[in-house]
Amino acid sequence: MSQRIRIFIAVLGIAVVALAGVALATPPTNFTTDLLARGSAGRLHAKHDGIRLTSRRDVDVAVATVTIAPGGSSGWHHHPGIVLVAVKTGTVSFYNKRCRADVHQAGETFLETEDSPGLAKNTGPEPAVVEATFIVPASTPPAPATPLRIDDPQPKRCSVT
User: Fold this and answer.
1) Average pLDDT, the chain
2) Structural domain boundaries of the chain?
3) Are 132 and 102 in contact (CB under 8 A)?
4) Is the pLDDT of residue 7 over 60?
5) What's the CA gap between 62 and 38, in Å, rounded?
6) pTM to 2 decimals?
């Protein structure tokens, strides 16, 4: 088999895998994100009042308001870096890859810190509004900014969407 044919088959295989991942992704429903600000922070080294925040690489910090209508869902996803989520109004059930939910009411916070899939769902009767602070790896110019969300397929044995 010629070198060109091997390269073509390898590229075709990568494309098929990439397209399959996109096809299996679970999109958000009745879920809106309003990015309020994003900026470069460099390396973080801060300590105050017993709280320490340190990064080993340059990071960006972004803040967004997310609104989930009753019954709405984020779709299965994960984030680069760390996300601190403060529930402003309503109720948010956050499902992990094992389909277990932690329920968060207004005034509570939770973290999203893993590469495994998670899903936020509004199981209450009113819109849920959260303020999310993202600490993500900095983008390297001239590449586009690091995405704040990475879509994932629905985990097996979990019917939550």
Assistant:
1) 86
2) 26-151
3) no
4) no
5) 4
6) 0.81
Q: What does the pLDDT read at residue 24?
A: 73
Q: What pLDDT score does 43 carry?
A: 95
pLDDT at 20 over 50: no
Q: Which residue's structure tokens are 């009042």?
A: 49
Q: How many residues does the chain have?
A: 161
Look at 2 and 114; give whichever has higher pLDDT: 114
* Averaged pLDDT, 57-84: 96
Between the alpha carbon of residue 145 and those of residues 49, 80, 141, 142, the distances in Å are 32, 12, 8, 9
Helix (H, G, I), strand (E, B) or coil at 14: helix
- Residue 124 near residue 90, CB atoms below 8 Å: yes
Q: How far, in Å, CA of 140 to CA of 96, rounded? A: 30
The strand pairing partners of 31, in sequence order, are 68
**Longest Cα pair distance anywhere in the chain, in angstroms?**
65
Please name the residues in contact with 54: beta carbons below 8 A apart, sequence gap of 6 or more.
44, 45, 46
Instruction: Give SS3 for 93.
Output: strand
Q: Which residues pair with 110 in a beta bridge?
A: 85
- Side chain identity, residue 146: T
| CATH for 26-151 (6.10.140.1670, 2.60.120.10, 1.20.1290.10, 3.30.10.20) | 2.60.120.10
Which of these, 134, 113, 124, 133, lies nearest to 89 by C-alpha position?
124
